[in-house]
Amino acid sequence: MPHAPIHHRFRRSLLSVAAASAASMLIQPSAAQVPDAAEEALLQEVTVTAESQLLQAVGVSIITAEEIEDRPPANDLAELIRTMPGVNLTGASSSGAFGNQRQIDIRGMGPENTLILVDGKPVQSRSSSMMRRTGERDTRGDTNWVPVTAVERIEVLRGPAAARYGSGAAGGVINIITKKPTEQLSGEATVYYRTPQEKNEGSSQRLGFNLAGPMAENLSFRLYGNVAKTNRDNPGINDGFGTQASPAAGREGVRNRDIDGLIRWDLTPDQVLEFEAGVSRQGNIYTGERFIQGGLNPIQQQLTDSGAETNRILRRTAAVTHRGNWGDMGNSRVIFQYEDTNRRYLNQGAAGSSEGAFTDPLTWNNSELKNYYLNGEMYTPFSAGGMNHVLTTGLEYRQEKIKDPGSQNANPPAGFETSKTGKSSSDTWALYLEDNIAVNEALVVTPGLRLDRHENFGSNWSPSLNATYQLSSQWSVNGGIARAFKAPNIYQSNPEYWYTTMGNGCPTGISGPCYIQGNPDLKPETSINKEIGLAWTNHQGWDATIAYFDNDYKNKIVADMPFATPDDYGTFRRFQWYNAGKAKVRGLEGSLNIPILGHNGDTLKLFNNLTVMDQNKNKDTGQPLSIIPKFTLNSTLDWRVHEKFNTELTATVYGKQKPRTVGSRGDAITTEGRGSYALFGLRATYTINKNLRAGFGIENLGNKRLYRTANSESAGAASYNEPGRAYYLTLTGSF
């Protein structure tokens, strides 16, 4: 059966609008046996019947395993996720620091407001990397911990429904669903190789496998592994761009090693228990990253020449999951997860003097982040007032602990005593309720309420209301409003966090040094997210959606010194992280899918999605929250040449990117923006036989290359490299 490309498969369960990304994962039949009649009936009531009422909806996108095979990423799943409506890659600031370390940004709310889940469990390893004063971290994010071979699907949830997931989901949620145990022994292995046309860009290669099957009666397993390497760009790739004698570094490389195992025990036909453990390692390949004017010092040059690792991350997880069917009471799921992230990185100099330079002799810092996560949910169908309901009741506990001596970028000034351990912790309890009410055959209303109790920042209420109305068999309208929030992170709120900058980083008229200290008196960031959308399908392959979203954002946590008044201690000035004023994020998302040949376009079909950002700025300063394109258009022409052979021609057009206009010293600056540009790709997949398939393609057909400007020039939007034309080949064998 032909399947649609990844750009435009939108689904939302009418009986579980806010829980769309969890419903199909949490309530599923046993992999070891066929569910009984009662469980099958409940499944149909919760998912199948609901989804059949709405074939297209805004706010939820699904990327399937088959679609990943058609467009395989070189390494990081973010390469695919970025093609969803409302999604882009961005850095956390316009300073250019770590500019090539871009992460998922949903609807312009920034990477810190995108919650990454794996099988419904939060992934928080990026929090082990220190947040610098302009908001950036030296991290690739959390979308590269699950190898491509192990992914069953990826769910992207945007808008008010995401508020149900608590802190850090104000922009949206990415839920990466892994493949599960199977009834019969099965497996597959994939090799991938990508080579750029330009010799100064890094190549990629990876090998991954997934193995699953029964172990004994009522006992099954799944095991996946991955070895991958993306080489760095040539250290001189950005020579000649910008005015500084010392140009910015290109994209650093990365080495990946992943192994994860899951054992599933079907205790009874209605009770399932799963045990899972995994270890992943990521190490960078240094390419001469720097932040100040001037060439590399001898140590940096040595590390660059040898392609050394300067930042290594070891992530270990262990989890237990129970799923149960309780008859008339409904279904339940309980998860406990332990996540331990150890980040070992070379100590760097302070801002404004030797920032980016490694100390002599080389010294290593260790950041250890431990996260404990407990979540229980109950899904109870019932009837009341002549209406059908599915009530979701949830209880959640999160504990976060970090020990990062490197967060004391420099010794605190005299009079400020610290333990010098960089320790910090926080506990959060949450209770949430959500009732999916089928008012009639056309209208489903979903009120929800979540209460989070943070030990340091008190209680936060997150009410929400979503609704879907089926106007006719072809038309439906969706709407929602919710209050979302994000608690201060463990660096911003830790009084033992100290970051220092010399005169170059202080506001005009203030001589250095200037210090920034964590602030335990911060308020959580909050956002009122609103959305309304219209969906249409004629059930003959034509369909379209359009959505308007509007977010009123306030209390964004910043340490942007030009807009703060320091405490004057005579020999130095002290700033703290503080809550900024109000911000506005507003835009449109839309899709249009056009059948050209075959039944409903199953031979040739054109898929399109468009995101337009109308506003994305701090109301007080006029500065952007995220540097993202004014618009993003993704198009795919999908041609099923034969049942064994299919091709795709893809195009992505990015609009202008507008950077900030105020420098770190508070003065007006001229930063480099980026004009519109387009990227094209050609891909093909051929099924050789039932056990072997091959894929090949050309990325960036037009060889459109962009180069990065030096950090010391306030790079603005020119803070990343866009790689040129590249060729890839992939081969997958299965049994």
TrEMBL record:
MF (Gene Ontology): siderophore uptake transmembrane transporter activity; signaling receptor activity
CC per GO annotation: cell outer membrane
Alphabetical list of SUPFAM superfamilies matching this protein: Porins
Coiled-coil zones: none
Key words of the record: Cell outer membrane, Ion transport, Iron, Iron transport, Membrane, Receptor, Signal, TonB box, Transmembrane, Transmembrane beta strand, Transport
Motif stretch (TonB C-terminal box): 718-735
UniProt domain TonB-dependent receptor-like beta-barrel: residue ranges: 293-701
Residue intervals of the TonB-dependent receptor plug domain: 58-173
Region (Disordered): 122-142, 403-423
Location(s), subcellular: Cell outer membrane
Membrane topology: Multi-pass membrane protein
Cleaved signal peptide residues: 1-32
Main location: membrane
One Pfam family linked to the record: Plug
GO biological-process terms attached to the record: siderophore transmembrane transport
UniProt similarity note: Belongs to the TonB-dependent receptor family.
Protein name, as recorded: TonB-dependent siderophore receptor
Organism: Lampropedia aestuarii
